[in-house]
Amino acid sequence: MRYSITTFRQLYYACKEQGKKIFEIALENEVDKGDYTEYQVRLQAKKSLDAMKEAIKEGLKSVELSPSGMSGDDCDKLQKRYAKTPSLLGSLAEKIMIYALATSEQNLRMGTIAACPTAGSCGIVPSVLIAYAEENKIREDDEINALITAGEVGRIVSNKMALAGAVGGCQAECGVASAMAAAALTQMRGGTVKQVINASALALKNILGLTCDPVCGLVEIPCVKRNPFLAIHAVTASELAMADIMSKIPADEIVDAMEQTGQLMSPLLKESSEGGLATTKTALALAKNILK
Amino acid sequence: MYQSSIIDIISPVMAGPSSSHTAGAVRLGLLARNIYNAKPDKIIFKLYNSYASTGKGHGTDKGLLAGFLGFSVCDKRIKTVFDTPEAEELNYEFEYLQDFNRHPNAVDFVIEGGLNMLISGNSVGAGEIEITNINKFSVKLNGKYNTLLLVYEDMPGVISAVTGVIQKDNVNIASLHCDRSGKGKDASMCICLDGELSKDCIKEISELKDMYIVRYIKKLES
């Protein structure tokens, strides 16, 4: 076996020694593991990318509410606002927030999305990746390379802990999605390997401890709005990384801290809807109406 | 041991809203369909714990049924599966239960027909699943490998006879898991494969002495 990359440190040195990009080493590593060919990984990345674009397209048009009736019209509101009043942060940020809501709302109406890494966090990677690619006329091949870069970040984290709210809280779902988006964005902007990994590290480090306490046990409150929040979080991470502002704690140690934090987190705050937002007075009243 | 892949992280392309409660449910249904491999007279879907309490809002019931009808995780008909002609032809029921001895996202498929079968499985996160029991046998099926599932009379030489036939196809065995109800009684074998078995090979295995159930279960699409 040539490599078996399980840490960010190994990924960094493999790239450095061979003068290759993260997606190149990631693809070689996949092939070496023996379960998939390079063609199969690229094909799935293309399939997921197409599904992400389609979800955004559908989500932008729809105001259909979720089966619970709790959500589904926020993307429309944000589009109407920006049609009249531009965002303080410029057109890229507008697009990212709109796309994140469009995708998340498509998800809760049982539309087709790409889980990336999970369905609850499905708006974060596509919004950042596709909005930036559109605004900067990035070629599809480079979008796919960025998605593979994001996938490699998620894969390395998943070697340490399951990417499931029930295991690690929301830091393991939307937090990891944000780190993946930060990596994809930094890759597309022409960041170095160090900057890409550092962007992921900064995104993860600044979301440690995020709980998973969905109201009524549904992927709606706070999940839908959390997607645009953590998409912009990924942009912040990329901005700092491009300025070579280094995370003092290395990426692998942040993943260790995330795993420990997940273990220490009360089960009441890990997708069981028995604490936090899920047991507020308002949430319990909503649950009474919806689940009966 | 299976190491996760980039493909697992950036997929599946699926109908929302939950990878564990919707896509996982479809995949469990698909595996149960392939394991049963016949038209049943009746099927009861028993949903446990979180599957029971939040399953309705996540379309877990729709996902299980859609999978059992052969729809994929991204099929647009999942949302309206109860109204499809395929569902109308099937006699099905749902039961919602709490049992703390079971996984948070557990399901039983109680299938009646020419052959009665009880298939149990769990949705373990991010759309990944496992089938853990068929009738009373413990099995290991996760949909990531083409799998040969056999139930036969427990006696010496069966494993070697079966693996001998597989070798003729030059297919590598990724894992092999056996169980039995008692010495000399019914036994089960669950063989995960790295490649594709030919029809001839499967036929030859099903013609071995005292094979009761032979199923070749194709791996699920990602």
Could you explain the architecture of this structure?
The complex is a heterodimer of chains A (292) and B (222). With 292 residues, chain A is mostly helical. Chain A has helices at 8-18, 22-33, 38-61, 74-84, 91-108, 124-135, 140-160, 165-168, 174-188, 193-205, 223-242, 251-264, 281-291, and one strand at residues 112-114. The termini of chain A are far apart. In chain B, strands 3-2-4-5-6-7 form a 6-stranded mixed sheet. The radius of gyration of chain B is 17 Å and the shape is globular. The model of chain B has no long low-confidence stretch (mean pLDDT 93). With 222 residues, chain B is α+β, with helices and mostly antiparallel strands. In chain B, β6 and β7 form a beta hairpin. Helix content of chain B is 28%, strand content 34%. Chain B has helices at 6-9, 19-36, 49-53, 55-58, 60-68, 85-88, 158-168, 199-206, and strands at 13-15, 42-48, 92-97, 106-112, 117-125, 128-134, 137-141, 146-153, 173-180, 186-193, 211-217. The longest helix of chain B is centred in the first third of the chain and has 18 residues, at 19-36. Chain B contains 8 helices and 11 strands. The chains are: A mainly alpha (292), B alpha+beta (222). The interface between A and B is large, with 58 and 39 residues.
Short description:
The complex is a heterodimer of chains A (292) and B (222). In chain A, 64% of the residues lie in helices and 1% in strands.
Q: Unreliable stretches of chain A, pLDDT < 50, 5 or more residues? A: none
The ordered H/E elements of chain B are HEHEHHHHEEEEEEHEEHE
Q: Identify the strand order in the major beta sheet of chain B.
A: 3-2-4-5-6-7
How can the largest sheet of chain B be summarized? 6 strands, mixed
